[in-house]
Amino acid sequence: MKGNFGDSISNKVYEYRVLARMSQQELAEKVGVSKQTIFVMEKGNYVPTLLLAYRIANFFKVDVNEIFTYAEGNDQNEN
């Protein structure tokens, strides 16, 4: 059964990228995506795949939970 859970994922990709003094294009090339993907992810308009999240975390040599934060919502279809 599919519910509207309202879950979300926030990220610190922008912060880590800026601290590393990298452009969006440079990070995109390192993790195998387009600059546009990095852009929309930083703006919070794109939730990366688990594989991409791990690629980014591994690139910055941190745990995936340091960059990506899961926030659980409420099941709107619960009876």
Automatic annotation (TrEMBL):
Annotated keywords: DNA-binding
SMART domains from the UniProt entry: HTH_XRE
Transport is among the record's keywords: no
CDD domains listed in its UniProt record: HTH_XRE
UniProt xrefs under InterPro entries: Cro/C1-type_HTH, Lambda_DNA-bd_dom_sf
Pfam families from the UniProt entry: HTH_3
Domain HTH cro/C1-type: 13-67
UniProt cross-references to PANTHER family, sorted A to Z: DNA-BIDING PHAGE PROTEIN (PTHR46558:SF4), TRACRIPTIONAL REGULATORY PROTEIN-RELATED-RELATED (PTHR46558)
Protein name as it appears in the record: Transcriptional regulator
Organism: Metabacillus malikii
